[in-house]
Every structure is written in structure tokens, then in C-alpha cells.
Design goal:
CATH class of the largest domain: Mainly Alpha
Number of domains: 2
Distance between the termini: 86 Å
Strand content: under 5%
Largest sheet: none
Structural class: mainly alpha
Order of helices and strands: HHHHHHHH
Number of helices: 8
CATH topology of the largest domain: Rna Polymerase Sigma Factor, Chain: A
Helix content: over 70%
Radius of gyration: 28 Å
CATH superfamily of the largest domain: RNA polymerase sigma factor, region 2, helix turn helix motif
């Protein structure tokens, strides 16, 4: 496919011809990249931004209307908006992380078991668990986090969290046998 004129490219883009997206990228990549790079300040972030913005526009038929301006201008505005959105999102995440880092540490949990002997046995059994299993169990049962939330908080795959919980519960079950009716 040879070089297209801007009006032909715009017509193909509106008609959703499959080759139009690639042709628009080839024709305007340097301009779009410059727009994203100017806002984001990073080469790799700019490349991702251009890619995502083009796919987002392509995924929404009818967003570009030739009577409102050139395809180059429209795509440049879309990339700029995407870049600004990314920059704002990064600033929000940074602000949240800063607040979390300055926040007071979590208060230790209190196990709600009335019998002091049972409570001591549970503390002792928990202390004997590997730290990964103990931490997962504490987050699940004392902080009431879901498995997904635990995985996100610890930065560990969900399957790993489920395995840690299962192994930890098995070990606790062995360490804390339930008294039978005959021993009561």
C-alpha cells in the first residue's frame, strides 16, 4: 500500500477499513509520539500511550468525524488526552502511596477467644507457622481481607495465597486438635 493522502486516509479510517489503522499509525506516528513524549517525559510511556490511544479510538467507531478537523489533529488530541490521563493517574497513585507510607502502622489484631488457654494455644500455633502462611492467615481471618486483596497487598499471585492459606490451616488443624465428645 503506497503513501495515502490525508483525505483518503481519513475516509478509510471512517469506513473502518482494517489497513487504515496501520496506515494512520505509519503516517502520524512521529507526531503522536512527540505529543505523548512531551506530556509524559518517557520514551516507553509515550510509545504505550500512542498504542493505547489508537486502539481506544479504533475500538469506538464514529468518534472521528472529518467535518470537525483532520485525522492527524484528532489523533493528536486523543493521544494528548490519554497522556494527561496517565500522568494524573500516576500522580494519584504517588499521592496515595505517600499517604500510606506516612500513616501510622496497623494496630495489632486482638483474637476474640474468651478462654485464655485456648487463646494462648492459638497464638503459639500461629507463631510456629512459616511467616508467609501466618501472614496470609492473619490477613484473611483477623483483617477480613479476601484472597484477592491479600494477593494484591502482598504482591503475590492469587494461587500462591490460596496455597499458603490451605497449608497454614492444615498445620493449625494438626496443632489444635478439636476435643472429642469423650474427652469433654
Amino acid at each position: 500500500m503506497g503513501e495515502m493522502r490525508d483525505d483518503e486516509l481519513a475516509e478509510d479510517f471512517v469506513a473502518r477499513r482494517p489497513e487504515a489503522l496501520e496506515a494512520a499509525y505509519r503516517a502520524y506516528a512521529s507526531t503522536l509520539y512527540s505529543v505523548a513524549r512531551h506530556v509524559l517525559g518517557s520514551d516507553s510511556d509515550a510509545q504505550d500511550c500512542v498504542h493505547d490511544a489508537l486502539l481506544r479510538v479504533w475500538g469506538r467507531p464514529g468518534t472521528y468525524r472529518p467535518e470537525r478537523g483532520s485525522l492527524r489533529t484528532f489523533l493528536s488530541v486523543c493521544v494528548r488526552n490519554e497522556a494527561i490521563g496517565r500522568k494524573r493517574e500516576a500522580a494519584r497513585h504517588f499521592h496515595i502511596e505517600q499517604r500510606a507510607a506516612l500513616a501510622e502502622p496497623e494496630q495489632p489484631y486482638e483474637i476474640e477467644i474468651e478462654d485464655p488457654v485456648d487463646r494462648a494455644r492459638l497464638h503459639e500455633a500461629l507463631a510456629k507457622l512459616p511467616s508467609e502462611q501466618r501472614q496470609a492467615l492473619e490477613l484473611a481471618y483477623f483483617r477480613y481481607l479476601s484472597h484477592t486483596q491479600i494477593a494484591e497487598k502482598l504482591g503475590v499471585p492469587l494461587g500462591t495465597i490460596k496455597s499458603r492459606l490451605a497449608m497454614g490451616l492444615r498445620k493449625l488443624q494438626n496443632a489444635l486438635p478439636v476435643p472429642s465428645a469423650s474427652t469433654l
